[in-house]
Specification:
301 residues; two-stranded antiparallel ribbon; alpha/beta
Length: 301
């Protein structure tokens, strides 16, 4: 791409929204909320006229005054003021939101992508996906060691979630694990689970999502608008359905495999053991697992 073809992200976003048809845009928010929040602040009528739906990888909680406020999700914490402005704008202006919290995202074994990649080692797309998953988690480790994650995201949380280390094993080797620093070679330890946080947020943008994925959100009415919240384990999206979706997607990527059928990739094979399941993590294989983002990480469709 030539330098003259590059545009400022905020200006590009502003232009795309202006050119869009009324009530035609769905925003998928999988990182910081800054760019969209700034546009809401600067041109509220434009956003109100053009946006029909927000799918947010973040989270909400009730305040002491029984009002909704951003929770401690990493994506909210990148820019807390922007997150609050975005949620408040949608509540106040009646823009429907589908918001998924880490508590409603199942644990997906990271081995799923590795298994597909192993079937066709020359497939560059699967190789990229596996590498991206690993690099994202290595970046998350450095972010954790730098103290830039919420307090709940400890080294024990990291090893239990992404490395398959149970609490008893971590306690027995606590000095070793706690002694690992940001420059430690963390890749060999990665053998746990990721939360397909961004995949779940994307699912909400699909027109037939409710029936296809048997969604059971909490419905919240505000200003005559119904918002759909997936904030608690009771609203968790089916691991089986997400595994099926990703397996079928990987199969399409790996076209040409001989004798590989979707039916052979059963969700049961990847069901997390109860000892390693956690509903208190916030990182995903992308987006929320990445270091603090630069501007323009939102996507409009």
């Amino acid at each position: 791409m030539r330098p003259e073809e590059l545009h400022d992200g905020s200006e590009l976003l502003r232009r795309l929204v202006r050119e869009a048809a009324p009530a035609s845009l769905t925003f998928l928010m999988i990182s910081a909320m800054t760019d969209l929040a700034e546009l809401m602040r600067d041109e509220p009528e434009l956003i109100h006229a053009k946006v029909r739906h927000l799918c947010v990888m973040g989270g909400l909680q009730k305040s002491g005054a029984d009002q909704w406020e951003p929770d401690t999700a990493v994506n909210n914490n990148w820019d807390p003021a922007a997150a609050k402005l975005m949620y408040d704008f949608c509540f106040g202006r009646g823009i429907p939101m589908s918001v998924v919290s880490r508590n409603a995202v199942p644990n997906l074994p990271m081995q799923l992508a590795k298994d597909f990649a192993a079937r066709e080692p020359k497939n560059v797309i699967m190789e990229y996906l596996v590498n991206a998953q690993e690099l994202g988690l290595c970046g998350l480790w450095k972010t954790l060691c730098a103290g830039r994650l919420p307090e709940r995201c400890s080294k024990q949380w990291y090893f239990e979630t992404f490395c398959g280390v149970d609490a008893e094993t971590f306690a027995a080797k606590r000095a070793f694990y706690e002694g690992l620093g940001p420059d430690a070679e963390i890749s060999p330890y990665l053998n746990g689970h990721v939360k397909p946080y961004d995949v779940c947020a994307l699912i909400f943008a699909l027109p037939d999502a409710a029936s296809a994925f048997d969604l059971r959100p909490r419905l919240e009415e505000a200003k005559g608008t119904t918002h759909r919240f997936y904030l608690e384990p009771s609203a968790m999206i089916s691991l089986e359905k997400i595994t099926k979706l990703l397996s079928e997607t990987f199969l399409e990527v790996c076209e040409g495999f001989s004798g590989l059928e979707a039916a052979s990739w059963s969700a049961d094979r990847y069901q997390p053991a109860s000892s390693t399941t956690s509903t208190g993590t916030s990182a995903s294989s992308a987006g929320d697992a990445a270091p603090a983002p630069a501007q323009t990480r939102t996507a409009a469709s």
